[in-house]
């Protein structure tokens, strides 16, 4: 039973929403970050509207998220411990329901936070590129090659090589995560015993 709880905890830790959050670098506190120059910010917003057109933003994000979620799921399912646990039809049904709920929550969270993400990206671009550089980027993304990049960049996550890499990574993560969670549970139980 403890092994199953560890596996379930592993899956919870590795769901896409959490994975997105954990992949983000630790940022400097907002008070310490300089406000971007207004002209650079305006140019950066134009660039973001060009490379992530407002009418297609949700679809672009979904085209990246869907294959990533599928790859993570397949990687998790490749874990020997998870395969054993999911041999029980009731456990498999509960697991499938859990993943469906997590997928839906992640999609909702990303859709709702998309305006904030675009604003944050605009500000990040404005801090890193001056107006001339942003204009160069806009010119590039107006070219056929730039348009091809924009059209395909978010779907790169669906490429078979990337999918295979993600599945392998998730399978490895599950192996280590199970051991790490088991050790953590043991450590926590030991601290609880010390209190008695």
From TrEMBL:
Domain of life where this protein originates: Bacteria
InterPro entries: DUF2059
Short name of one Pfam family: DUF2059
Keywords per UniProt: Signal
Signal peptide: 1-21
Signal among keywords: yes
Keyword Signal: yes
Stretches assigned to the DUF2059 domain: 117-171
Entry protein name: DUF2059 domain-containing protein
């Amino acid at each position: 039973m403890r092994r199953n709880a560890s596996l379930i905890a592993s899956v919870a830790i590795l769901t896409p929403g959490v994975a997105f959050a954990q992949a983000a670098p630790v940022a400097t506190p907002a008070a310490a970050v300089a406000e971007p120059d207004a002209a650079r910010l305006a140019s950066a917003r134009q660039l973001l509207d060009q490379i992530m057109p407002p009418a297609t933003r949700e679809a672009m994000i979904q085209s990246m998220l869907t294959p990533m979620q599928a790859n993570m799921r397949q990687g998790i399912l490749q874990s020997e411990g998870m395969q054993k646990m999911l041999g029980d039809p009731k456990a498999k049904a509960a697991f499938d329901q859990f993943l469906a709920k997590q997928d839906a929550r992640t999609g909702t969270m990303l859709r709702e936070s998309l305006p904030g993400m675009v604003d944050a990206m605009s500000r990040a671009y404005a801090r890193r590129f001056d107006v001339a550089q942003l204009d160069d980027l806009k010119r590039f993304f107006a070219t056929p090659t730039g348009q091809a990049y924009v059209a395909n960049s978010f779907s790169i996550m669906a490429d078979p090589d990337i999918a295979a890499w993600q599945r392998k990574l998730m399978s490895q993560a599950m192996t280590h995560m199970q051991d790490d969670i088991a050790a953590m549970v043991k450590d926590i139980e030991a601290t609880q015993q010390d209190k008695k």
